[in-house]
Amino acid sequence: MQEWWRDAVIYQIYPRSYQDDNGDGVGDLQGITRRLPHVADLGANCIWLSPIFQSPQADMGYDVSDYTAVDPLFGSLEDFETLIQTAHDLGLKVIVDQVLSHTSDQHPWFKESRVDRTNDKADWYVWADPHPDGSPPTNWHSHFGGPAWEFDPQRGQYYLHNFLTSQPDLNFHNPDVIEAILETCKFWLDRGLDGFRLDTVNYYFHDQKLRSNPPAQAKPQVMATDLYGMQDNIYNKTRPENIAFLERLRALTDQYDDIMMVGEVGEMGRRSIEIMGEYTAGTGRLHMAYSFAMLGPDFTAEHFRNCIEGFQRNAPDGHPYWSFSNHDVPRQVSRWAEHAVDNDSIARLACAMLMAFEGTIGIYQGEELGQLETEMTFEELTDPPAIRFWPAVKGRDGCRTPMVWEKDSPSAGFSDVKPWLPVKEPQAVRAVDQQGVDSILAFYKEVIAYRAAHPAMCRGTTEFHALPEPIFAFTRKAEGERLTCVFNLSKTPVSLTLTGTATLSGPHHATLTQSKLELPGNGFAYLASDAALSLAKG
Fold it and tell me: What whole-number distance in Å separates Cα of residue 513 and Cα of residue 392?
C-alpha cells in the first residue's frame, strides 16, 4: 500500500470563499475545479474541502440536512465528480469534511425523531426528560453559548446540541445510527473520494448515564461564547466508546485502495495531544489526527516541542497532522504578530518551521500568500457566535473572507458580484497576481519542493536540541541524510555556536560562518551535516 498521506501537504479549501464561477457571490465547485492548477503548482498533494453537502447553511455547511447530496449552492453531484477527476489528473487527492456527530434540524432523520417518542427514529438523537424543575438534564455547555440542551415541546423532552440549537447530536449508542452513517461514507468512497476529514471526531458519543461534568480542576478559561473551560468535559465528549466506532470506520475505508482519514480533535492543551495518540494508535483506528494545540496564540519553542514530543510519547506507532491555521481560528500571521519583525517575516518563519515538522502538513487557503486576518464590522458578520456576542467575540469570518486572485479585478478576482464576505484592501494587495519571484507564494513553493526532495524532511525521525527560548531547534534524520532545523521565534537577533561542520541547505534567513550561525529576528536555517552537530547559545 502506498500510503500517500504519510508525507503529504494537504491544502484546505473553504468552498464558499475560493472561487465564484456562477456569479452569486459564493464560491462553488466549478470555481474550485478551475483553480486547482494553483494548488498543484504550489506543490500540495491533496485538497481538503470543507462541507459541500446539502445544508440550510446555519453554520456554513456544518449542519448537514442530506449526507448524500451536494448543496445546490456549490453545484451538483456531477460537478463534484468532475472536480475529483480533474484533481486526480493533476496528481491531487481529494478529501471532504464529514460532519458525523450532529446533523441539521432540517435533516429528515431529525424531523421524524422529534414527532413523538415511539417512531422508527425516536432514538436516533440524544433525547432526555427535564429535571422535575424543568431544567436541562445535565450542566453541559454548548460551544455557541448557553446550555447544550434545547427543549422540544412536541416531544416534551430536551435534545442535545454541542453547537447551534439547529445542530442536534446523533445518538451513536444506537447501532442503527452507526450503520446509517457508515452507508453515507460508503456513498462517497464509491465515487472516488480519497478520504475524510472527520469534524469534531471526539464528540460522537455521550455519557449514557447523563452525568454532569465536574468543575475544571485547572484555572478556567472563560470566553463569551464558550464556557467549556469552566468544566472538565469528561461526560459530554471523548467517551471510550468512540474508539470502537473509529475502528468500524477504519474497517470500511480499508475495503478501498489507499484511503485516508484525519480526525479533528476538539480539545486544547496537553489532553488534545493525548487524544491524538489514542485515536491513531495501531493500524485499526484513524490514519492521522490533529488538534487545536498549534492553532492558538502560543508561539514558544517549549510549546511546539511539547506538542510534538507529546504525540511521539502517546502514539509511538501513530502519525500526526500538523497545521497552524484553518477556517476556525485567526490567520497565523495576525495571530502571532507580536512575535513578528513584520508580516512577511513571520509568514516565512511559520512556513519554514511547519514544513520541517515530522508528519503530514496542512495549509489553509491564503496562508501561501501571507494573508492577514480581515477586520470585520458588525454589519458584515455572518458567523452565528460573533453576531450573538459582538464585540466581545470577533468570530470566524475574518479568516474566511474570499481568496484573492487578481488585485485590480472585482472582489480581487473571486467574483463579479458582491461576495458573501468582503474583500478588503489589506487582503487584495496579497493577491496571487501580486506574488512575484521574492514573494510569500514563491517561498512556499520553494520550501514545499525542498521538503519533498529531502527524505529527512518528509520521512525522518526527530531529535530536539536543548536550547533556551526563543530558539527552537531539532534534527531530522532518514536514509543517511541529516538536517538540523533552527528557528528564531523572536524579533531579536541571536547567535549560535556550532560544534561540528555544517552547510546551509535550501531556503534560509541566516548567516553561517565556520563556527557561528547568526539568526536575525524571525530567522531560520536548515543545516546539512554528515556527522552529529551540536548547537549552543552564542
Answer: 50
pLDDT tens for each residue of 348-372 = 999 999 999 999 999 999 999 999 9
Host H or E run for residue 461: strand 461-464
- Residue 466 is predicted with a pLDDT of 92
**Measured torsion, CA atoms of residues 294, 300, 301, 307, in degrees rounded to the nearest 10:** -30
Catalytic annotation on 267? yes
| CA pseudo-torsion sign 497, 500, 501, 502 | negative
What is the rounded CA–CA span in Å between residue 209 and residue 355? 44
The C-alpha atoms of residue 76 and residue 72 are separated, in whole angstroms, by 6
Please, are residues 412 and 428 in contact by the beta-carbon 8 Å criterion?
Answer: yes
- The residue with cell 463579479 is 416
Report the pLDDT value the prediction gives residue 314, as an integer from 0 to 100: 83
Tracing cell 491531487 back to the chain, one arrives at 92
Q: How many residues does the chain have?
A: 538
Per the listing, cell 497532522 goes with: 321
Residue 383 bears catalytic tag: no
Vertex 160: Cα angle to 99 and 276 (nearest 5): 45
Of 268, 392, 401, 265, the closest CA to residue 327 belongs to 401
By the 8 A CB rule, do 245 and 212 touch? no
Contacts of 231 (CB under 8 A, 6+ apart): 139, 140, 141, 213, 214, 215, 216
Are the CB atoms for 366 and 383 separated by under 8 Å? no
Which phi and psi angles does 146 have, rounded to 5°?
80, -175
pLDDT tens digits, 38-92: 999 999 999 999 999 999 999 999 999 999 999 999 999 999 999 999 999 999 9
CB 126 within 8 A of CB 141: no
Give the C-alpha separation, 164 to 161, whole Å: 6
SS3 of 200-221: the string is CCCCCCCCCCCCCCCECCCCCC
Does residue 534 register a pLDDT over 80? Answer: no
Query: Measured between alpha carbons, how far is 308 from 320 in angstroms, rounded to an integer?
Result: 9
Q: Which of 79, 97, 169, 267 is catalytic?
A: 267
- Catalytic residue (one of 59, 79, 199, 373): 199
